[in-house]
Amino acid sequence: MAAEHESGMRGRRSLFPSVSVNTLKIAGAILLTLYFFSAAVIQNGILHVNSYDTSAQLNEMLAEDPEAMLWTSIAAIAQFIGMIAIPIYAYLLVQGVEHTSSMVKYALSVLIFAVISEVPYDLAVYGKVWSWESQNPLWAVFIALVSLCLMKHVEGRGASSYALGVVAALGGCLWTVLIKCEFGWGFVFIAAVLFLLRKWRTMSLIAGVGASLVYMTAAMGFILISMCNGERREDESWVSKYAYYAYYPIMLLLMALWVKMQ
Fold it and tell me: Which of 17, 55, 117, 158 qualifies as a FRET site for 5, CA 20 to 30 Å off?
């Protein structure tokens, strides 16, 4: 009877669909596009928020222009939905650290695309070739990756490994604050929590939801993460692999060009 019950449980279908790692990547890319549609196309291209010296001037303009107020509402909604991508990318980063065949190559790839993306990011978000106001999110990904590498390196040293892991995570959070990364310390924090608890899936998901509350709607990303079955394309070519990285700067550059033409 017990065997029949167990067999029946295995035969039941889940109430929610199962998604692969590759599907999760696509979902993250769509959500990130929505986030930057708000930041670049609406805020920089339509509302020109960077042209106002103070928030009081911006609020005065919005009070006098109902259409601008509508665009502001659309921008806020798009940004809140886009934030769902944050924990998804943190989860994908943890998966990458777990499955990469070369940590150095992985980190170098992220670093190169962080450098490549900086000018498109500044053009899209600030309308400048270079701005120190904030750095593109790939810098936060790179810093989080370095932190996770350090955390993995000190594993297996007993209780001290957790203490050293916390130090590595805090160091990563501090660096994102110092160089003003988009998504910043919250991204490193979420990635570190997911990495530390990765062997206990349910616990990691619950803790990840709690960590994601630093961003208003980010915790919703765990709906998709909880559906992920961990499957990935084994025959993925290097072209499709790097197309995933290249999409980000290309997307920003296209948005920057659209803003420039307005």
Answer: 17
At position 180, the amino acid (one-letter code) is K
Q: Could you please report the per-residue DSSP string of 18-32?
A: -B-HHHHHHHHHHHH
Q: By C-alpha distance, which of 88, 32, 53, 76 is closest to 255?
A: 32
**What stretches of 12-155 show up as alpha helix (H) in DSSP?**
21-36, 55-64, 66-82, 85-99, 103-126, 137-153
Q: List, in order, residues 6 or more apart from 130 with CB less than 8 Å away.
A: 118, 119, 122
Indicate if the pLDDT at residue 252 is higher than 90: yes
In whole angstroms, give the CA distance from residue 240 to residue 25.
12
CA distance 207 to 200: 11
- Which amino acid makes up residue 119? V
Distance (Å, whole) CA 107 – CA 111: 6
